[in-house]
Amino acid sequence: MQEGKIIKALSGFYYVLSAETITQCRGRGNFRKNKITPLVGDHVEFQADNTQEGYILKVLDRKNELIRPPIANVDQAILVFSAVEPDFSTALLDRFLVLVESKEIMPIICITKKDLISDTNLESIHAYLEEYRSLGYEVLMTSSKTEEGLKDLLPYLNGKISVFAGQSGVGKSSLLNAIRPELDLKTDDISTHLGRGKHTTRHVELIEVEEGLVADTPGFSSLEFNDLELSELPFCFPEMVKIGQDCKFRGCLHINEPKCAVKNAVDEGVIPSYRYNHYQTFYEEIKDRKPRY
């Protein structure tokens, strides 16, 4: 019996990387009966006499999983946002940060196209980014030149399983193509009507980059909080986790409760008001979500 990591799933076959060898495997017959679906990123136990005919015997515990792309055990998400075209949006960034935090994935904020923005707007974006850094987020800013973005990003990919995500039309696919040109991911111009880029999805595969693995398909095509409970939302805002320890009530949701340290921190400007406004928006969205049966 050997252990390895699934790096590709295609047409019922799973390609398992173990000690620099890739073995083509099938899942055990009882997986389907037990509703077990191996995912790319899974750590598995498998048996194989050669590299073409292996069998996955067991899927080991996952630390997280995503639906789009279908992948498990992601370490970090590179959240790609542009300074301009489309304009930088803290509301959209906070939505992505909550989705990523809720899956216990480390976010890295990557702002592109800094060379295409006016000095005045650049100052305002820098101010936002300093606030995100002060919350403990890793933030980098690169130009519209893909090569520069790549050079800045590569050190972050070492030893991790990473997925790219973020605003549509900002160059996620261009970055992935620059990492591995043979991917030839389809990138279309931004539709000015929708303000969104169009992306053609494919099967998901982990590709080796530097000393790490990167999913070759951008993640989080759905931005709804389908799996997130109200009680979990405060834990997706690091500043609320820290300051919320001083709230009078345990389990304070920082909405209407008296003696709430988080609301005091917003009033005093310690927590930026836009972060709290987004928190309230997400809270209402989850509260009004239709129950699923």
TrEMBL record:
Q: What keywords is this UniProt entry annotated with?
A: Cytoplasm, GTP-binding, Hydrolase, Metal-binding, Nucleotide-binding, Ribosome biogenesis, RNA-binding, rRNA-binding, Zinc
- Identify the residues that bind GTP: T112, K113, K114, D115, G166, Q167, S168, G169, V170, G171, K172, S173, S174
Give the InterPro entries listed for this entry.
Answer: G_CP_dom, NA-bd_OB-fold, P-loop_NTPase, Ribosome_biogen_GTPase_RsgA, RsgA_GTPase_dom, RsgA_N
Residues annotated as binding Zn(2+) are: C247, C252, H254, C260
Q: Which cofactor does it need?
A: Zn(2+)
Q: Where is the EngC GTPase domain?
A: 72-221
For this chain's record, the cofactor binding note is: Binds 1 zinc ion per subunit.
Q: What is its EC number?
A: 3.6.1.-
| Protein's cellular compartments | Cytoplasm
Pfam families under this entry? RsgA_GTPase, RsgA_N
> For this protein, what is any one GO molecular function term?
hydrolase activity
Task: Indicate the segments forming the CP-type G domain, all copies.
Answer: 63-223
Q: What class of enzyme is it?
A: hydrolase
| Family, as annotated | Belongs to the TRAFAC class YlqF/YawG GTPase family. RsgA subfamily.
PANTHER family (UniProt xref):
SMALL RIBOSOMAL SUBUNIT BIOGENESIS GTPASE RSGA, SMALL RIBOSOMAL SUBUNIT BIOGENESIS GTPASE RSGA 1, MITOCHONDRIAL-RELATED
Biological role: One of several proteins that assist in the late maturation steps of the functional core of the 30S ribosomal subunit. Helps release RbfA from mature subunits. May play a role in the assembly of ribosomal proteins into the subunit. Circularly permuted GTPase that catalyzes slow GTP hydrolysis, GTPase activity is stimulated by the 30S ribosomal subunit.
Assembly, per entry: Monomer. Associates with 30S ribosomal subunit, binds 16S rRNA.
What is the protein's name according to its record?
A: Small ribosomal subunit biogenesis GTPase RsgA
Q: Which organism is it from?
A: Rossellomorea pakistanensis
